[in-house]
Amino acid sequence: QAKESGKNSICFYTSDINDRLLHYQKTTALLRNALVAGSLQLYFQPQIDLKSGRMRSCEALLRCFDENSRPVPPDIFIPVAEKSGLINRIGDWVIDAACKQLTAWKDTALGDLRIDINLSGKQLTNQHLASQILQKLHHHDLRPSQLGVELTENEVIEGDEVQIGQLERLKNAGVHISIDDFGTGYSSLLYLRKLPVCSLKIDRSFLHHAMENSSDMAIMQAIITVGHSLGLSVVVEGVETSEQDNLVKTLSCDLAQGYLYARPMPADSMPAYLVSMMGH
Ligand code: C2E
Ligand code: MG
Ligand code: MG
Ligand code: MG
């Protein structure tokens, strides 16, 4: 009996490894093809200034489509891209695509919009990343302040000179730096003081819990207060309901992002979104 179940568990184990290997191979093939075929796409999600109600910036979210043109979520393909090393090529593609979009929006009603891209910590270990980004902006005749980068707190390793040096170069040049999903990692608020950052993005789980749980509400309030006292602007992610919108306004958050205002959308839907906003 014991032997049999032992056999079974080995069987499960190997098939699990097989599944993971297959998933890895399938996803890397998909990403390689997408890079060659040019089928990656950036979607954009507005960030709303809560005082003025205006859209100041938007987050670029990468989309990859499978052979049936179904979107594959980034939470699936980004980890594979990081593991396989493809993240550098993909990251370069994202930077180029953001520059092209900023150029296309130049001299339109969206001309003042900043685009914030997501960076993987792996990309920051490239000691030429900052100069590559600044060169691309320059090449497209764009100002560094038209671009922002978002990094989750765990991606920047405490004391990593190369990573922090890259962030410093970007920030000194005027690129906006945000810490993404803030509160879910293990970095202390003290560590934050040593990082060259401009904004904190509070992870959406806090907002969702804050609606029912007073200690989550207290944590959110504390993050906002400390963020402000460090001179940072605070963005709250995942606003889905008008109750949540009211809450983030009373907590004096600066900016908000979420399905309530807009879902991530292709670039060509952005002008109509801007028009629909102005009607409010
Ligand atoms: P993130 O940077 O924290 O992006 C926010 C995610 O929350 C996005 O998911 C967005 O669609 C989703 N979201 C926005 N508003 C709401 C809301 O009101 N409710 C809920 N439930 N979700 C909301 P998405 O687009 O699936 O991206 C997932 C993650 O993938 C991103 O999290 C980011 O970490 C990563 N990612 C996306 N694009 C890139 C990229 O170009 N490079 C890298 N390295 N990572 C990326
Ligand atoms: Mg982000
Ligand atoms: Mg986030
Ligand atoms: Mg995230």
Q: Could you characterize what this model shows?
A:
With 280 residues, the chain is α/β, with parallel strands linked by helices. Helices cover 50% and strands 19% of the residues. The chain has helices spanning 2-37, 74-84, 87-105, 121-124, 129-139, 161-173, 189-192, 204-210, 214-229, 242-250, 270-278; strands at 41-49, 55-65, 71-72, 114-118, 147-152, 176-182, 199-202, 233-237, 255-257, 265-266. The chain has an eight-stranded mixed β-barrel with strand order 1-2-4-5-6-7-8-9, surrounded by five helices. Helix 1 (2-37) crosses helix 2 and helix 8 (204-210) packs across helix 9 (214-229). The relative contact order is 0.11. Residues 180-181 line the site of one magnesium ion.
Cofactors and ligands: ligand C2E, magnesium ion
Estimated helix fraction: 40-55%
Total of helices: 11
The end-to-end span amounts to: 69 Å
The neighbouring-strand order within the major sheet is: 1-2-4-5-6-7-8-9
Strand residue content: 15-25%
Poorly predicted spans: 1-6
The average pLDDT is: 92
Please provide the ordered H/E string of secondary-structure elements. Answer: HEEEHHEHHEHEHEHHEHEEH
Gyration radius (Cα, Å) is: 21 Å
**Derived structural class:** alpha/beta
Q: Choose one word for the global shape.
A: globular
Strand elements, count: 10
Largest sheet: 8 strands, mixed, barrel
Organism: Marinobacter shengliensis
Domain EAL: 24-278
Protein name: Bifunctional diguanylate cyclase/phosphodiesterase
